[in-house]
Structure formats: C-alpha cells, structure tokens
Amino acid sequence: MADLQSALAARGLTVFTLPDKGRCLVSSRDFSSGSLSTISNAEEHEMRIFYMAGDVIISQEPYAYVSNNSSDSRCEGCFSSINLKKCSACQVVWYCGSTCQKSDWKLHRLECQALAQLSNDRRKLLTPSIRLMVRLYLRRKLQSEQVIPTTATDNYDLVEALVDHMSDIDEQQLVLYAQMANLVNLILKWPEMNIKDITGNFSKLACNAHTICDSELRPLGTGLYPVVSIINHSCLPNSVLVFEGSLAVVRAVQPIPRGNEILISYIETAGSTMTRQKALKEQYLFTCACPRCLKVGLYEDIQESAILEGYGCEDDKCRGFLLRDSDDKAFVCQQCGLVRNKDEVKKIAREVKLMSDKASTSLSSGYYLEASNMYKAIEQLQLKMCHSLSLNLMRTRETLLKILMELKDWRGALMYCRLTIPIYQRVYPRIHPLLGLQYYTCGKLEWLLGETENAIKTLTNALDILRITHGTNTSFTRDLLIKLEEAHAEASYKLSSNDDQ
Ligand SMILES: [Zn+2]
Ligand SMILES: [Zn+2]
Ligand SMILES: [Zn+2]
Ligand SMILES: [Zn+2]
C-alpha cells in the first residue's frame, strides 16, 4: 500500500479510505513545474493544482484480460479480428500474428497446457469469465515465481485489496460462482487451490472488472485493472474511462481541484434515477449517493423520469409530461391538463413489445430491410405513446441508424442520427464520449452526402468533445482531425471555384 501511495503521489493522486465509501482516489495535484512560461501566473498556478479537462489522470495495463470471443473471434493480444490463426495446441485462443502470440506466450504457455487437456464438452464451458479467472491465477503464479516482474501498480496484493461484496450476494449467485470456481479448479489442477478463494474472486470480478471497448465504445474484451478499480462511481462523473487497445486511460472531463475525488461512471448514465440506482444495485451492490441521485423524489427528478421513461401528451403538439392521477386509472398532462386513458397507453405498449421481439429476431438474423420496416413501425407507435425526448424512442432511432448504415442508406441514417442528437444533448453532460461519437457519425454522413458546411460544423462539435475524452495524441483523434481538414479544404475549393464562374 505504501508503494502504491508513492507511485500515485508522483501522478498527483492519493488513496483515502472512508468508513461509508471504502477506498477513494483523490487528486493531490500540486506540481511546481517552472517550465510553463508562456501562460500567465494565475493560469499556471491553476494548472499545477487542478487536473484540467483532457488531462490523463491515470493509465494502467490490465492485471489480466481476455478478448471477447463469444460472437466473433478476436486476437488475444490486440483484439484484431482479421488474419487470425487459432493456437494449434489448445484450439481455444486466436492470434493475429507472431508479435501478439509472442507477447502473450509466457502466460499462454501455461494456459495452453491447461486448456489442451480439457474434454470437448468442458471446452464448450469456457466463457470469458472462466478464462479471465484462469489467467488471473496464472499471472499471480508467474509473478510469484518472478517470471513476470511486479511493480507498485501491478501486483496481486492490489487484486486482494478489491472489494468482493460476498456478504451481499444471494444464494443462487453464490452457487453459480461455486460451479464456475469448480471448473477453474478442474482446469488448473493445483493442489493448493481453494474453491472458496476462487468463488470470492468471481464475486470480485463481477463488481470490479471492466469491459474493454474500442474508441467507438464497442466491446472487445474484459480486463481487471486494480488501480482503476479504486475509482468510485458517480452518475455525474468528473472523469471518463476509455481504452487504447488493452490500456485503460482515465481522463478528466472538467477541471478537478486538489482534494477532490476522481469519479467515473460504471453504468449508462442516460436513465431515470430509479433505473440508474437499480443497475448499480444489481451489478455493483451499492446505493449511489451522487448529486443526481440525491434529487430522487424532488419535483425536478420526477419530471425528468416522466420525460425519459414515461408517456407523452395526447395532444401531439404539447410537450408536457404525464403523471399518474390519484386513483391510478389515467395519466394527466402536467402542462395542458389533458387526461390520457391508462388502458389505451398500455395497449400501445403491448403492441410495441410484441413488435420489438419480432424486430430484434429479424435484425439478429441479418434481415436488415425487414428489420428497418419493423423498427420504423415501432417508431410510429412510440411517437404516439412516448414523450418526444423519451429514451425508448431514442433507442429505436439508434437501432434504425445502425440498420440503415448496414443498408448503406446514408440519407436515412443521417436523418435518424440527427433525431437522436437533441436527446443525447439532454441526457449526457456537455463533454461525454457518446455525444462526441454521435456528432462524429453525423459529421461523417454529412461529409459523405456532400453537405460540406454542415460536416465542418458537426465534426468540429465532435472534436471539441473527443479531444478531451479520447486525448489529442491518439490515432482515433488524429483521424478525426484529418477528416475535418479535408472538409475545410473542400469547402474552400468549392468557394474558389464558385468565384471563378
Ligand atoms: Zn494481435
Ligand atoms: Zn494454446
Ligand atoms: Zn448516482
Ligand atoms: Zn399536454
């Protein structure tokens, strides 16, 4: 712990332990660098004691990680899905080439031996969680034998220190973890192995492991990052976690003064307080007490929930939100007073549910045209039923955007992308990766359709956000910059050729 504290102190961070919250990562930033000569003294002082938006607070390689091989195969080293070759000995792990295979070899050599002796039936049970647990134990073994070096931020003691919430887990879940632990035990066959210890570690992974995503937030794998795991959750976080390959990078999205806690979000923060609290309780086993959650029950919070997850006014020009009447038989518009029959709303809701099941089946079977027609019909029903800023309507439009992209219907995709943006602006803070990515998609579509001026505006909006959340020095942001420069070049070319005429 002392080693960790001094490693963190060098980065302007410290770990506090609070009785009600457990461990917290707190900014202790106070750098007295004298080289910031181009800025004024007040600004210089601020930069020394604040993390500024876009600053990397901490970055960490995983203690152990696995690629997500359930839908399509990925390289165990870099998550690439092209030119893959299966490891011939175990027939479980894929690599894109010898570089990734070599860099994983110390660990995979042991993993390979363990997996190769499994029967085909048992091999089918190898979920990413099981494989992550096997890798966790193998890495501990290699570190204890000094085959892999340990550092202050990379050692098994940090895994030991993570919370497991064992006393809060229900019986059914514990039985499942014990079964999984049994399989890990059968794979490793270590005499000193203890099922209870592995069970506890499954519980640890459930509330501490992170889904590794690409720059566009599509899942690639799962990893355990014991220092990043110290960072607590807020539904209104001051920092964001993104990944560069398997490297976890936490960046500030707003100035964070010395003494303030570093906070990221563990869940999708678009949702009513009840929805967010439920998600946090179910997966992370705690009750959030962030400033957003503390508003629960206040008029402002009731209004927000009714807009995001409730129904819309019968008068389609009215933007009011609806609340239940006193005998729970109808909904009343809080703006114009119009009453909406509960049975009528429930009838549409049932229709939507029925159609959604069919639509998602046809989407997962790849029938994009059929799926697009179904989702358009769902959208029409939701327009009748929901508030215009409803999350359900937004999700349907997000799905339509994806389907129309698959169908290369760029005009239609752009229309749906634009329809989602006002809701994104409402449900996410000004600097949020999902808002930045949605602008980026919109800008790329505008550029493709020759709307150069619009593309410049939208790509600039994207860059303003993504340079903070994704950093300025990543290939992802550089690509965005190049697209923006091309759009500017085309706009000035168009302008000059207009002048020539
Ligand atoms: Zn690779
Ligand atoms: Zn192998
Ligand atoms: Zn909260
Ligand atoms: Zn109304």
TrEMBL record:
Keyword field contains GTP-binding: no
MYND-type domain: residues covered: 75-112
UniProt entry keywords in alphabetical sequence: Metal-binding, Zinc, Zinc-finger
Residue ranges constituting the SET domain according to the UniProt record: 11-267
GO molecular function terms listed in the Swiss-Prot or TrEMBL record: zinc ion binding
SUPFAM superfamilies found in the cross-reference section: SET domain, TPR-like
Domain of life (superkingdom): Eukaryota
One Gene Ontology term, aspect cellular component: nucleus
UniProt KW Electron transport keyword: no
Cited PANTHER family: EG:BACR7C10.4 PROTEIN, HISTONE-LYSINE N-METHYLTRANSFERASE SMYD
Name under which the protein is recorded: Histone-lysine N-methyltransferase ASHR1
Native source organism of the sequence: Tetracentron sinense
